[in-house]
UniProtKB/TrEMBL annotation, chain A:
InterPro entries: 6Pfruct_kin, 6Phosfructo_kin, His_Pase_superF_clade-1, His_PPase_superfam, P-loop_NTPase, PG/BPGM_mutase_AS. In the C-terminal section; belongs to the phosphoglycerate mutase family. GO terms for molecular function: 6-phosphofructo-2-kinase activity; ATP binding; fructose-2,6-bisphosphate 2-phosphatase activity. Substrate binds at residues 257-264, 307. Pfam families: 6PF2K, His_Phos_1. Keywords: Acetylation, ATP-binding, Hydrolase, Kinase, Multifunctional enzyme, Nucleotide-binding, Phosphoprotein, Transferase. Residues 1-21 are annotated as: Disordered. Synthesis and degradation of fructose 2,6-bisphosphate. GO terms for cellular component: cytosol. Residues 1-15 have a biased composition (Polar residues). This is 6-phosphofructo-2-kinase/fructose-2,6-bisphosphatase 2. Homodimer. Forms a heterodimer with PFKFB3. GO terms for biological process: fructose 2,6-bisphosphate metabolic process; fructose metabolic process.
UniProtKB/TrEMBL annotation, chain B:
InterPro entries: 6Pfruct_kin (IPR003094), 6Phosfructo_kin (IPR013079), His_Pase_superF_clade-1 (IPR013078), His_PPase_superfam (IPR029033), P-loop_NTPase (IPR027417), PG/BPGM_mutase_AS (IPR001345). This is 6-phosphofructo-2-kinase/fructose-2,6-biphosphatase 4b. One of its GO terms (cellular component) is cytosol. In the C-terminal section; belongs to the phosphoglycerate mutase family. Substrate binds at residues 238-245, 288. The keyword Phosphoprotein applies.
Length: 537, 451
C-alpha cells in the first residue's frame, strides 16, 4: 500500500511536490524507517494506571530517535477537549449513555487524525494510547485499520500488583489536568473508582481463542513476564525487543565527556590524543564526584579512544570499553582545526553547516550514522541501573537527544561542554537533567549554529560524497529501499552526465526542503519542569 | 594504559555481557526442535564472541549404552533405564561445570528433555551451587505435521536408528515420545513464576517470556524470536571483478571491470533460471556491489553495514606497497588476522559486530541474495557454517562464484556455483613466516597474481 504512495512521490519531479511529500525524500530516512513497509498502528490496551502512556511516550521517543516517524494519539487529550470540566468518575460509568457517546466520538476523531498522520503526513507509526479494553472498541479499530491498509500491533499492559498501581497513580495521575486540586486521598479515591468502571467491561486479549490471530505483546506486571503473539515484521520485532528491555526502576545515567585532550587545546577535531594536564585534573575531580555522591553499583563505560580510557583510569573502578562509543569519524577532516577544514575543504565546511545531522564527512560518518551505531548502547542503558558514560561531544549529543527527545534539527547543536557531568533521572513521562560543572577549566569546543545560514530550498551546491558510490541513473521508476545510513545519490531531475555511469560526475542534492518530519510530543509534562539547565542550545 | 578492566584475553574485548556464566536448559518432548535450537543458539553466540558449548544428553546416553534396542529403554517404569539416564545427565552436568568454571566458557547449553519439575529442580540446585545463572528454553508444539517432518529430517539419520527401516524408526520414535508424555510437566506461569524462561509455542507463533534478568538473556530471547524454520535459501556472492581488483589493490570504491560486468549479466541469467520465490537482494553502499545489482533489473536494498572492511591507512594499496610502507603492520596482521585492526580502520572482529544486525535480519527473511565483499562474505559464511575465528579470515570466497546456503537438519548445505567468467584471484593465504623480522620475499610469498 505504501509502495504506491512512495511511487507517486518519486515520480513527480517538481520541487513543489518534493516539498509537500515528505516520504519521497528518501535519502534522509534512516534504515530503520526503511525496514517498515505499510504504516503501522500500535494500539495500547489496559486498565487505567497500567503504564500505557508511559510506554507509549517512551516507545515513540525511541522510534523517532532511530529515525522512524512516530506520533502518539492520546485519547484522554481528545476527551478533555470535548468535555472541558471533569467532574468525577461518574463520567466513566459504562451505563452513562451520554458519556459513552462522547467517548466514542472522541475515538473516531482521534482515528481520523491517525489516518491523516499515516496516510498524508508521512508518519510511519501511530501509537493509539487509550484503554481499548473492550472487544467492541478493538474491532472498531481493526475495521479502521483494514480499510486504510495499515498494520496493527497491540500492546497490552496487565498488572495486578496494588503497590505498583498506587505508585503509578501518585506519580502521574495526581498531577493530571483532570485533578486540579491536589487532595491526594480524594484523587486516589476517585481514580480507583474510575478503574472499577473499566473493570466491569474489561475483556483482556485472549491468545487462545478470540485473539489468537492478532499480533500483540502482553506485558505482565511491569515486565516480569511477556506473552508475544504473531510478530509480523522487522519493526514489530524491534518494538517487542525494546519493550522487553525497559524497566521502571529508579536509576540515573551520568553522561560526561573525557577530560580535555591535547587536540582539544589545539582546536583539532577527532584523532586519538591523550589528556592535557587540565584533563587529568578533571579525571581526579570526577573521582571525587563519584565518591561524594556515593554512587553504589555504578557501572562505568568508555570508548576505545585514549582520552576516555585515561579519564576512567583515574577513577580506580572497573570499567567497560565500547568501540561504538568512539567519537564521530571525521574522515578526511580528522585531526584538522575548523580553520584548516575551511581552508582545505570550503565546500564541505559549508555543506556541513547546512545540514549538520545528515552531513557525512568524506570517508567518515554523519550524526545519522552515529545514531545507528549507538542504538545498542541505548538498549543497554535501558536495561542497566546506574551508569556513567564517559564519551565524546558528538556521541554525547546523540545520547542526550534520545533521553531528552530532541530531533535532528537540534541534536547537532546541543551543548555538551568539557568537564561537566549531566545526571539524567527518569521522572514521570520524561527525564530530569542536572548539570554538574566540576570546576576544572577547559577550552570550549562548541560550534554554534551559524547565523544567517543558507536556506535549504535554494541549496544548489552539488555535493559529492567521494566514498559513497554512484549508481547508474534509474531509467524505470522502481521502489528502491535504502536500509542503512544515507542514500548516496538520488537526482531530483535527470542530468545528462548521470546517464553515463562511467563518469565520476555526480550530484547529491543536500539540504533539500523536505526533511521527513519527526512529529513527536514533548516528553515533559507541563507540571514538572526541568531542574537546572537543559542541555540543549 | 591498561585499566583494571582492560581485557587481556582477546576474547573479552567485546562488551562484557555476562557476569557469571549462564546455563541454558532446553525443555520439551522429543522432536520439538530442542537440539535444533541448541545448535543454532550455540553457533550464534560463538559468532558474536561469547564462548558457548552445547551438551547433548542423548550423546552421553549413546556413549554409555553403545547399542540402542528400542523405545522400551525410555519407559518410565524401566528402572535400569532411569538409572542410566540419570547418570548420563549428571555426567553431562559435570562437563558443564568443567567448561564454565575451569575452561573459561561463558554459556553452556544443556540439551535434554528436562520434562519433569524434579529434573529441573536438580539442575537449578546444581547451578546455584556453582554460581551459574539458569535460563530455560521450552519448545511446545502439538502440530503433528511439524513433528512428523522433524522426525523424518533428523531422527531417521540418527545413530539410534542406523539399522532400521524408516517405518520402524518412525514407529519406535512415536512410542518414545509417548513415554515422556505422561510425566511431562511444562513450565507453568504460576508454579514456575520465579524461573527465567522463554516458552516457544508452535515453532515461533507465540512466545511467553518470564523474568529476563540480564543482557545475555535478552539477546538470546531476541535471537530466538527472530529465527524460523520455513524452508529457504540464502545466496552469497561478491560484486563482479572491479578495477582495483585487477590492479591487486585492496579496499577503495572502484567500479566494475568489463569481466565484472559480464559476471553481473551471468548472475542475472542464473537467478532467472533458479526461479527463486520472492527473492530479496541486498548490496553494500559501495559502487561495485551496486553496479552488480543494477544489472539484475530488480529492486534491491543497500546496507551500509555490508561495506567492505575498512583498511584505514592501507586503503587502495597493493600488498607489495603495504609491505614496503608498513612491514610491521603487515606481519602483525598475519599473526592474528581476526583481531588485527588496520590503523584508522577495522578488524574482522569489528566487522562481525557490524554485521550482527544483518545476520538477525537474514534470520527473519526467507530467500535473500547478498552481494557483498570478500571480508564481509567470510564473516557471514563463518556464521552459517560455524567456522572459528581462526578459520574465518582464510575462508575461500572467490570472485564470480555464488554460494547457495540451504538450512538442512542441524546445519547448512552449501552449493558453490561458478558462473564461468574469469577473474583475478584475491585470496591471500597465511604465509609461513609471520615474524616481524621476516624478509620481503617471505612476506609476499602468498600474494595472488595481479597486473
Amino acid at each position: 500500500m505504501s509502495c504506491t504512495q512512495r511511487d507517486i512521490g518519486a515520480s513527480t519531479n517538481s520541487t513543489e511536490a518534493k516539498r509537500t511529500d515528505p516520504r519521497c525524500n528518501e535519502k534522509k530516512c534512516s534504515w530503520a524507517s526503511y525496514m517498515t513497509n505499510s504504516p503501522t498502528m500500535i494500539v495500547m490496551i489496559g486498565l487505567p494506571a497500567r503504564g500505557k502512556t508511559y510506554m507509549s511516550k517512551k516507545l515513540t521517543r525511541y522510534l523517532n530517535w532511530i529515525g522512524v516517524p512516530t506520533k502518539v494519539f492520546n485519547l484522554g487529550v481528545y476527551r478533555r477537549e470535548a468535555v472541558r470540566a471533569y467532574k468525577s468518575y461518574d463520567f466513566f460509568r459504562h451505563d452513562n449513555e451520554e458519556a459513552m457517546k462522547i467517548r466514542k466520538q472522541c475515538a473516531l476523531v482521534a482515528l481520523q487524525d491517525v489516518r491523516v498522520y499515516l496516510a498524508e503526513e508521512g508518519g510511519q507509526i501511530a501509537v493509539f494510547d487509550a484503554t481499548n479494553t473492550t472487544r467492541e472498541r478493538r474491532d472498531l479499530i481493526q475495521a479502521f485499520v483494514k480499510e486504510n491498509g495499515f498494520k496493527v500491533f497491540f500492546v497490552e499492559s496487565v498488572c495486578d500488583d496494588p503497590d505498583v498501581i498506587a505508585a503509578n497513580i501518585l506519580e502521574v495521575k495526581v498531577s493530571s489536568p483532570d485533578y486540579p486540586e491536589k487532595h491526594r486521598e480524594r484523587v486516589m479515591e476517585d481514580f480507583l473508582k474510575r478503574i472499577e468502571c473499566y473493570k466491569v467491561t474489561y475483556q483482556p486479549l485472549d491468545p487462545d481463542n478470540y485473539d489468537k490471530d492478532l499480533s500483540f505483546i502482553k506485558v505482565i506486571n511491569v515486565g516480569q513476564r511477556f506473552l508475544v503473539n504473531r510478530v509480523q515484521d522487522y519493526i514489530q520485532s524491534k518494538i517487542v525487543y525494546y519493550l522487553m528491555n525497559i524497566h521502571v526502576h529508579s536509576h540515573s545515567i551520568y553522561l560526561c565527556r573525557h577530560g580535555e585532550s591535547n587536540h582539544n587545546v589545539e582546536g583539532r577535531i577527532g584523532g586519538d590524543a591523550e589528556l592535557s594536564p587540565r584533563g587529568k585534573k578533571f579525571a581526579h575531580a570526577l573521582r571525587d564526584f563519584i565518591e561524594e555522591y556515593e554512587l553504589s553499583d555504578l557501572k562505568v563505560w568508555t570508548s576505545q579512544l585514549r582520552r576516555t580510557i585515561q579519564t576512567a583510569e583515574e577513577l580506580s573502578v572497573p570499567y567497560e570499553q565500547w568501540k561504538i562509543l568512539n567519537e564521530i569519524d571525521a574522515g578526511v577532516c580528522e585531526e584538522m582545526t575548523y580553520q584548516m577544514i575551511q581552508e582545505t575543504f570550503p565546500e564541505e565546511f559549508a555543506l556541513r553547516d547546512q545540514d549538520k545531522y545528515h552531513y557525512r564527512y568524506p570517508g567518515g560518518e554523519s550524526y545519522q550514522d552515529l545514531v545507528q551505531r549507538l542504538e545498542p548502547v541505548i538498549m543497554e542503558l535501558e536495561r542497566q541501573g546506574n551508569v556513567l558514560v564517559i564519551c565524546h561531544q558528538a556521541v554525547m549529543r546523540c545520547l542526550l537527544a534520545y533521553f531528552l527527545d530532541k530531533g535532528a534539527d537540534d541534536l547537532p547543536y546541543m551543548k555538551c561542554p568539557l568537564h561537566t557531568v549531566l545526571k539524567l533521572t527518569p521522572v514521570a513521562y520524561g527525564c530530569k537533567v542536572e548539570m554538574f560543572y566540576l570546576n576544572v577549566e577547559a577550552v570550549n569546543t562548541h560550534r554554534d549554529r551559524p547565523l544567517g545560514k543558507v536556506t535549504r530550498d535554494s541549496a544548489l551546491i552539488h555535493r559529492r560524497n567521494s566514498y559513497t558510490p554512484l549508481s547508474s541513473y534509474d531509467q524505470v521508476k522502481r521502489p528502491r529501499l535504502y536500509s542503512a545510513g544515507n542514500q548516496p545519490w538520488l537526482p531530483l531531475a535527470p542530468t545528462p552526465s548521470a546517464l553515463m555511469p562511467e563518469r565520476l560526475q555526480s550530484q547529491t542534492r543536500t539540504g533539500s526542503s523536505c526533511l521527513t518530519p519527526c512529529v513527536k510530543e514533548s516528553t515533559l509534562t507541563a507540571a514538572k519542569k526541568l531542574v537546572a539547565v537543559s542541555a540543549s542550545e | 594504559m591498561r585499566g583494571s578492566c582492560r581485557p587481556n584475553n582477546p576474547r573479552d574485548r567485546t562488551v562484557c555481557m555476562t557476569n557469571c556464566p549462564t546455563l541454558i536448559v532446553t525443555v520439551g518432548l522429543p522432536a520439538r526442535g530442542k537440539t535444533y535450537i541448541s545448535k543454532k543458539l550455540t553457533r550464534y553466540l560463538n559468532w558474536i564472541g561469547v564462548p558457548t558449548k552445547e551438551f547433548n544428553v542423548g550423546d552421553y546416553r549413546r556413549e554409555c549404552l553403545k547399542i540402542y534396542k528400542s523405545f522400551e529403554f525410555f519407559r518410565p517404569d524401566n528402572e535400569e533405564g532411569v538409572k542410566i539416564r540419570r547418570q548420563c545427565a549428571m555426567s553431562a552436568l559435570n562437563d558443564v561445570r568443567q567448561y564454565l568454571s575451569v575452561e573459561g566458557g561463558q554459556v553452556a547449553v544443556f540439551d535434554a528433555t528436562n520434562t519433569t519439575r524434579d529434573r529441573r529442580g536438580t539442575i537449578m540446585k546444581f547451578a546455584e551451587q556453582n554460581g551459574f545463572k539458569v535460563f530455560f528454553v521450552e519448545s511446545v508444539c502439538e502440530d503433528p505435521e511439524v513433528i512428523a517432518q522433524n522426525i523424518v529430517q533428523v531422527k531417521l539419520g540418527n545413530p539410534d536408528y542406523m539399522n532400521c527401516s524408516s517405518e520402524e524408526a518412525i514407529e519406535d520414535f512415536m512410542e518414545r515420545i509417548k513415554c515422556y508424555e505422561t510425566s511431562y510437566q511444562p513450565l507453568d506461569e504460576d508454579l514456575d513464576s520465579d524461573v527465567s524462561y522463554i516458552k516457544i509455542m508452535d515453532v515461533g507463533r507465540r512466545y511467553l517470556v518470564n523474568r529476563v534478568v540480564d543482557h545475555i538473556q535478552s539477546r538470546i530471547v531476541y535471537y530466538l524470536m527472530n529465527i524460523h524454520i520455513t524452508p529457504r535459501s540464502i545466496y552469497l556472492c561478491r560484486h563482479g571483478e572491479s578495477d582495483l581488483n585487477i590492479k591487486g589493490r585492496i579496499g577503495g570504491d572502484s567500479g566494475l571491470s568489463s569481466r565484472g560486468k559480464e559476471f553481473a549479466k551471468r548472475l542475472r541469467s542464473f537467478l532467472e533460471e533458479q526461479k527463486i520465490k520472492d527473492l530479496k537482494i541486498w548490496t553494500s553502499q559501495m559502487k561495485r556491489t551496486i553496479q552488480t545489482a543494477e544489472c539484475l533489473g530488480v529492486p534491491y536494498e543497500q546496507w551500509k553495514s555490508l561495506n567492505e572492511i575498512d583498511a584505514g591507512v592501507c586503503e587502495e594499496m597493493m600488498y607489495e606497497e603495504i609491505q614496503e610502507h608498513f612491514p610491521l603492520e603487515f606481519a602483525l596482521r598475519d599473526q592474528d588476522k581476526y583481531r588485527y585492526r588496520y590503523p584508522k580502520g577495522e578488524s574482522y572482529e569489528d566487522l562481525v559486530q557490524r554485521l550482527e544486525p544483518v545476520i538477525m535480519e537474514l534470520e527473519r527473511q526467507e530467500n535473500v541474495l547478498v552481494i557483498c565483499h570478500q571480508a564481509v562474505m567470510r564473516c557471514l559464511l563463518a556464521y552459517f557454517l560455524d567456522k572459528t575465528s581462526h578459520e574465518l579470515p582464510y575462508l575461500k570466497c572467490p570472485l564470480h562464484t555464488v554460494l547457495k546456503l540451504t538450512p538442512v537438519a542441524y546445519g547448512c548445505k552449501v552449493e558453490s556455483v561458478y558462473l564461468g567468467v574469469d577473474s583475478v584471484n584475491t585470496h591471500r593465504d597465511r604465509p609461513e613466516n609471520v615474524n616481524v623480522q621476516r624478509s620481503t620475499e617471505d612476506a609476499l610469498q602468498t600474494v595472488p597474481a595481479h597486473h
